[in-house]
Protein backbone atom coordinates (compact mmCIF):
# COMPACT_ATOMS: atom_id res chain seq x y z
CA UNK A 1 0.00 0.00 0.00
CA UNK A 2 1.45 3.37 -0.94
CA UNK A 3 2.05 6.13 1.62
CA UNK A 4 -0.63 8.31 0.06
CA UNK A 5 -3.25 5.56 0.32
CA UNK A 6 -2.31 4.89 3.95
CA UNK A 7 -2.75 8.57 4.78
CA UNK A 8 -6.13 8.58 3.09
CA UNK A 9 -7.12 5.44 5.02
CA UNK A 10 -6.25 7.07 8.35
CA UNK A 11 -8.15 10.17 7.28
CA UNK A 12 -11.34 8.20 6.59
CA UNK A 13 -10.92 6.17 9.80
CA UNK A 14 -10.64 9.42 11.71
CA UNK A 15 -13.83 10.77 10.14
CA UNK A 16 -15.59 7.47 10.88
CA UNK A 17 -14.47 7.61 14.53
CA UNK A 18 -15.73 11.18 14.89
CA UNK A 19 -19.03 11.04 13.04
CA UNK A 20 -20.24 7.41 13.22
CA UNK A 21 -21.80 7.93 16.72
CA UNK A 22 -23.73 10.96 15.45
CA UNK A 23 -24.99 9.04 12.40
CA UNK A 24 -26.17 6.17 14.62
CA UNK A 25 -27.91 8.63 16.93
CA UNK A 26 -29.70 10.29 13.98
CA UNK A 27 -30.82 6.90 12.63
CA UNK A 28 -32.20 5.79 16.01
CA UNK A 29 -34.06 9.09 16.44
CA UNK A 30 -36.44 7.71 13.78
CA UNK A 31 -36.88 4.40 15.62
CA UNK A 32 -40.50 3.62 16.48
CA UNK A 33 -39.58 1.48 19.51
CA UNK A 34 -39.44 2.91 23.03
CA UNK A 35 -36.24 0.94 23.65
CA UNK A 36 -33.59 3.00 21.88
CA UNK A 37 -31.22 0.10 21.16
CA UNK A 38 -33.76 -2.08 19.33
CA UNK A 39 -34.80 -1.04 15.81
CA UNK A 40 -38.54 -1.60 15.24
CA UNK A 41 -39.21 0.47 12.14
CA UNK A 42 -39.16 4.03 10.85
CA UNK A 43 -41.24 6.61 12.69
CA UNK A 44 -41.23 10.35 13.43
CA UNK A 45 -43.50 10.12 16.47
CA UNK A 46 -40.72 10.95 18.95
CA UNK A 47 -40.26 14.34 17.30
CA UNK A 48 -43.96 15.06 17.94
CA UNK A 49 -43.70 13.90 21.54
CA UNK A 50 -40.55 15.98 21.96
CA UNK A 51 -42.37 19.23 21.18
CA UNK A 52 -45.26 18.26 23.49
CA UNK A 53 -42.88 17.75 26.44
CA UNK A 54 -43.21 21.07 28.26
CA UNK A 55 -40.48 20.38 30.80
CA UNK A 56 -37.92 19.51 28.14
CA UNK A 57 -38.91 22.48 25.94
CA UNK A 58 -38.57 24.84 28.93
CA UNK A 59 -35.06 23.48 29.52
CA UNK A 60 -34.20 24.04 25.84
CA UNK A 61 -35.51 27.63 25.96
CA UNK A 62 -33.58 28.34 29.18
CA UNK A 63 -30.34 26.97 27.71
CA UNK A 64 -30.76 28.92 24.46
CA UNK A 65 -31.33 32.21 26.30
CA UNK A 66 -28.34 31.65 28.60
CA UNK A 67 -26.13 30.59 25.67
CA UNK A 68 -27.12 33.64 23.60
CA UNK A 69 -26.45 36.11 26.42
CA UNK A 70 -23.23 34.31 27.33
CA UNK A 71 -21.90 34.37 23.76
CA UNK A 72 -22.61 38.10 23.33
CA UNK A 73 -21.03 38.99 26.68
CA UNK A 74 -18.03 36.72 26.16
CA UNK A 75 -17.27 38.25 22.75
CA UNK A 76 -17.35 41.79 24.19
CA UNK A 77 -15.14 40.89 27.17
CA UNK A 78 -12.88 38.70 25.01
CA UNK A 79 -12.37 41.54 22.54
CA UNK A 80 -11.43 43.96 25.32
CA UNK A 81 -9.01 41.42 26.80
CA UNK A 82 -7.49 40.72 23.36
CA UNK A 83 -6.77 44.43 22.78
CA UNK A 84 -5.07 44.65 26.15
CA UNK A 85 -2.97 41.55 25.44
CA UNK A 86 -1.93 42.60 21.91
CA UNK A 87 -1.87 46.39 21.82
CA UNK A 88 -0.59 47.29 25.30
CA UNK A 89 3.12 47.49 26.06
CA UNK A 90 4.75 44.44 27.68
CA UNK A 91 4.92 44.65 31.47
CA UNK A 92 4.68 42.38 34.47
CA UNK A 93 1.04 43.45 34.93
CA UNK A 94 0.29 42.43 31.35
CA UNK A 95 1.90 39.02 31.97
CA UNK A 96 -0.18 38.57 35.11
CA UNK A 97 -3.32 39.65 33.25
CA UNK A 98 -2.57 37.17 30.44
CA UNK A 99 -2.26 34.36 32.99
CA UNK A 100 -5.52 35.35 34.66
CA UNK A 101 -7.38 35.50 31.31
CA UNK A 102 -6.22 32.06 30.18
CA UNK A 103 -6.49 30.35 33.61
CA UNK A 104 -10.10 29.12 33.05
CA UNK A 105 -8.86 27.20 29.97
CA UNK A 106 -6.90 24.77 32.14
CA UNK A 107 -9.08 24.90 35.25
CA UNK A 108 -11.32 21.84 35.85
CA UNK A 109 -15.02 22.62 35.62
CA UNK A 110 -15.60 21.20 39.09
CA UNK A 111 -13.25 23.78 40.62
CA UNK A 112 -14.82 26.64 38.63
CA UNK A 113 -18.32 25.60 39.63
CA UNK A 114 -17.44 25.09 43.31
CA UNK A 115 -15.56 28.39 43.59
CA UNK A 116 -18.41 30.32 41.96
CA UNK A 117 -20.94 28.63 44.25
CA UNK A 118 -18.94 29.68 47.32
CA UNK A 119 -18.67 33.22 45.87
CA UNK A 120 -22.43 33.51 45.33
CA UNK A 121 -23.16 32.17 48.82
CA UNK A 122 -20.69 34.63 50.39
CA UNK A 123 -22.12 37.55 48.39
CA UNK A 124 -25.65 36.59 49.41
CA UNK A 125 -24.60 36.59 53.08
CA UNK A 126 -22.66 39.88 52.93
CA UNK A 127 -24.46 41.91 50.26
CA UNK A 128 -27.82 40.19 50.10
CA UNK A 129 -27.31 39.46 46.40
CA UNK A 130 -28.03 37.15 44.67
CA UNK A 131 -30.98 36.05 46.80
CA UNK A 132 -31.67 33.00 44.62
CA UNK A 133 -29.52 31.09 42.19
CA UNK A 134 -30.92 30.70 38.71
CA UNK A 135 -30.44 31.99 35.16
CA UNK A 136 -28.45 35.03 36.30
CA UNK A 137 -25.89 33.02 38.26
CA UNK A 138 -25.57 30.46 35.45
CA UNK A 139 -25.03 33.27 32.96
CA UNK A 140 -22.32 34.86 35.14
CA UNK A 141 -20.61 31.49 35.56
CA UNK A 142 -20.67 30.74 31.84
CA UNK A 143 -19.32 34.19 30.95
CA UNK A 144 -16.43 33.54 33.34
CA UNK A 145 -14.94 30.67 31.36
CA UNK A 146 -16.34 31.45 27.87
CA UNK A 147 -14.60 34.85 27.88
CA UNK A 148 -11.24 33.06 28.13
CA UNK A 149 -11.95 31.01 24.98
CA UNK A 150 -13.21 34.10 23.14
CA UNK A 151 -10.10 36.07 24.15
CA UNK A 152 -7.79 33.37 22.78
CA UNK A 153 -9.59 33.24 19.41
CA UNK A 154 -9.75 37.03 19.00
CA UNK A 155 -6.16 37.53 20.19
CA UNK A 156 -4.80 35.20 17.51
CA UNK A 157 -6.64 37.17 14.83
CA UNK A 158 -5.62 40.53 16.26
CA UNK A 159 -1.93 39.56 16.21
CA UNK A 160 -2.16 38.84 12.45
CA UNK A 161 -3.79 42.15 11.56
CA UNK A 162 -1.81 44.69 9.59
CA UNK A 163 -1.55 47.87 11.68
CA UNK A 164 -0.69 49.89 8.56
CA UNK A 165 -4.35 49.79 7.49
CA UNK A 166 -5.47 51.47 10.72
CA UNK A 167 -2.57 53.95 10.54
CA UNK A 168 -3.47 54.80 6.95
CA UNK A 169 -7.11 55.43 7.92
CA UNK A 170 -6.07 57.78 10.75
CA UNK A 171 -3.57 59.54 8.48
CA UNK A 172 -6.49 60.26 6.14
CA UNK A 173 -8.41 61.95 8.98
CA UNK A 174 -10.47 59.15 10.52
CA UNK A 175 -10.94 59.31 14.26
CA UNK A 176 -9.85 56.29 16.39
CA UNK A 177 -13.52 55.39 16.93
CA UNK A 178 -14.31 55.55 13.20
CA UNK A 179 -11.15 53.58 12.42
CA UNK A 180 -12.23 50.89 14.87
CA UNK A 181 -15.70 50.50 13.34
CA UNK A 182 -14.68 50.81 9.66
CA UNK A 183 -11.28 49.06 9.61
CA UNK A 184 -10.60 47.03 12.75
CA UNK A 185 -14.04 45.56 13.37
CA UNK A 186 -14.59 44.25 9.79
CA UNK A 187 -11.14 42.64 9.85
CA UNK A 188 -11.95 41.04 13.21
CA UNK A 189 -15.39 39.85 12.08
CA UNK A 190 -14.41 36.21 11.27
CA UNK A 191 -12.74 35.82 14.67
CA UNK A 192 -15.70 37.45 16.42
CA UNK A 193 -18.09 35.05 14.68
CA UNK A 194 -15.92 32.06 15.60
CA UNK A 195 -15.63 33.22 19.22
CA UNK A 196 -19.41 33.76 19.42
CA UNK A 197 -20.17 30.28 18.09
CA UNK A 198 -17.57 28.69 20.37
CA UNK A 199 -18.95 30.49 23.43
CA UNK A 200 -22.53 29.62 22.47
CA UNK A 201 -21.64 25.94 22.10
CA UNK A 202 -19.67 25.81 25.36
CA UNK A 203 -22.52 27.41 27.28
CA UNK A 204 -25.14 25.18 25.67
CA UNK A 205 -23.07 22.08 26.44
CA UNK A 206 -22.11 22.88 30.03
CA UNK A 207 -23.40 20.55 32.72
CA UNK A 208 -20.89 20.63 35.58
CA UNK A 209 -20.66 24.38 36.26
CA UNK A 210 -24.41 24.90 35.79
CA UNK A 211 -25.15 22.12 38.27
CA UNK A 212 -23.24 24.03 40.98
CA UNK A 213 -24.71 27.50 40.41
CA UNK A 214 -28.27 26.77 39.30
CA UNK A 215 -31.34 26.99 41.45
CA UNK A 216 -34.63 25.12 41.51
CA UNK A 217 -36.21 27.49 38.98
CA UNK A 218 -33.54 27.15 36.26
CA UNK A 219 -32.85 23.78 34.71
CA UNK A 220 -30.70 23.79 31.61
CA UNK A 221 -30.93 21.29 28.77
CA UNK A 222 -27.81 19.25 29.74
CA UNK A 223 -29.12 18.99 33.31
CA UNK A 224 -32.54 17.86 32.08
CA UNK A 225 -31.05 15.34 29.65
CA UNK A 226 -28.61 13.98 32.23
CA UNK A 227 -31.34 13.50 34.83
CA UNK A 228 -33.61 11.77 32.26
CA UNK A 229 -30.76 9.50 31.05
CA UNK A 230 -30.21 8.29 34.61
CA UNK A 231 -33.79 6.96 34.53
CA UNK A 232 -33.25 5.32 31.13
CA UNK A 233 -32.59 6.83 27.71
CA UNK A 234 -35.75 8.19 26.12
CA UNK A 235 -36.08 8.25 22.30
CA UNK A 236 -37.06 11.91 22.68
CA UNK A 237 -33.48 12.65 23.69
CA UNK A 238 -32.30 11.17 20.38
CA UNK A 239 -34.76 13.38 18.50
CA UNK A 240 -33.62 16.46 20.42
CA UNK A 241 -29.96 15.65 19.82
CA UNK A 242 -30.64 15.24 16.10
CA UNK A 243 -32.27 18.67 15.93
CA UNK A 244 -29.33 20.21 17.80
CA UNK A 245 -26.87 18.56 15.38
CA UNK A 246 -28.88 19.96 12.47
CA UNK A 247 -28.91 23.50 13.89
CA UNK A 248 -25.20 23.40 14.76
CA UNK A 249 -24.32 22.06 11.31
CA UNK A 250 -26.27 24.85 9.60
CA UNK A 251 -24.69 27.49 11.85
CA UNK A 252 -21.20 26.09 11.22
CA UNK A 253 -21.81 26.06 7.46
CA UNK A 254 -23.02 29.68 7.49
CA UNK A 255 -20.02 30.69 9.60
CA UNK A 256 -17.68 28.90 7.18
CA UNK A 257 -19.25 30.77 4.25
CA UNK A 258 -18.85 34.11 6.05
CA UNK A 259 -15.21 33.42 6.90
CA UNK A 260 -14.47 32.28 3.36
CA UNK A 261 -16.03 35.40 1.84
CA UNK A 262 -14.22 37.64 4.33
CA UNK A 263 -10.88 35.99 3.53
CA UNK A 264 -11.47 36.38 -0.21
CA UNK A 265 -12.35 40.03 0.28
CA UNK A 266 -9.25 40.58 2.43
CA UNK A 267 -6.97 38.92 -0.12
CA UNK A 268 -8.52 41.00 -2.91
CA UNK A 269 -7.93 44.19 -0.89
CA UNK A 270 -4.32 43.22 -0.21
CA UNK A 271 -3.75 42.53 -3.91
CA UNK A 272 -5.28 45.89 -4.81
CA UNK A 273 -3.05 47.67 -2.27
CA UNK A 274 0.07 45.92 -3.61
CA UNK A 275 -0.93 46.72 -7.19
CA UNK A 276 -1.47 50.39 -6.29
CA UNK A 277 1.87 50.54 -4.44
From TrEMBL:
Residues 60-255 form the ABC transmembrane type-1 domain. Pfam families: BPD_transp_1. CDD domains: TM_PBP2. It comes from the Bacteria. SUPFAM superfamilies: MetI-like. GO terms for biological process: transmembrane transport. Its main location: membrane. It is a multi-pass membrane protein. Keywords: Cell inner membrane, Cell membrane, Membrane, Transmembrane, Transmembrane helix, Transport. It is found in: Cell inner membrane; Cell membrane. The chain crosses the membrane at residues 9-30, 66-88, 100-124, 136-158, 179-198, 239-259. Gene3D superfamilies: MetI-like. InterPro entries: Bact_Polyamine_Transport, MetI-like, MetI-like_sf. GO terms for cellular component: plasma membrane. Belongs to the binding-protein-dependent transport system permease family. CysTW subfamily. This is Binding-protein-dependent transport system inner membrane protein.
